[in-house]
Amino acid sequence: MKTFLKWTRRAAVMFGLIYITLSITGQADTEIWESILVLLTCSIILGGFFYLIEDKWFPIRKKKMLKKVVQIFQAEPLSESQAKFKAGKYDVIIDITFVLRLSQYAPNGEVITFHVPRNQLNDKKLARPLSKIEEQLNNKPTYRIYRTNGMGLKLAKRRIEKRLT
Q: What pTM did the predictor assign?
């Protein structure tokens, strides 16, 4: 219910700003009660849609992605959203997260990141497409070496194993 109310509020603000813009430019030819009814209806529908995605679909998809990661990388699951495998002498931790935003520029959907503990990768220089971005994972300092979605897992495996072994 909390997720539904969060997304309904965000949708109401978005549709409210659209209505204000249309009324300022003189393109809104509706009565105020009709506008409020349309605003509430659209906000509830959009809030319900995002609620279903975030609270119902994402947990199911997270389990499928973890199963796929374990199968492709021969990894061992650490939690419901993390797994660990060995690439050469490095321990690579895979983190599966889902991001849902109303922005076209932010990452949306499933984001799978690959991390190496900072003490294992201190002086090694990584070649592209791998990167060495400092992050925290489970309150431990790590380097994020690669980020992809569910479609690029086999490519990620080839790139990581080629560069780290």
A: 0.78
Query: 80-104, pLDDT tens digit by residue?
Result: 999 999 988 889 999 999 887 767 7
| Closest-CA residue to 157 (of 68, 58, 61) | 68
d(CA 159, CA 148): 12
Q: Which residues contact 94 (CB under 8 A, 6 or more apart)?
A: 69, 73, 75, 82, 83, 84, 85, 112, 113, 114, 115
Q: Which two three-digit tokens encode residue 143?
A: 């380097």
Question: Rg of the chain's alpha carbons, rounded to an integer?
Answer: 22
Residues 81, 62: contact at Cβ < 8 Å?
Answer: yes
DSSP, residue by residue, 20-66:
HHHHHTT---S-HHHHHHHHHHHHHHHHHHHHIIIIIIHHHHHHHHH
**3-class DSSP assignment, residue 8:** helix
Q: What pLDDT digit, counting tens, does each position of 99-150 carry?
A: 877 677 777 778 999 999 988 877 777 778 888 888 998 899 999 999 998 8
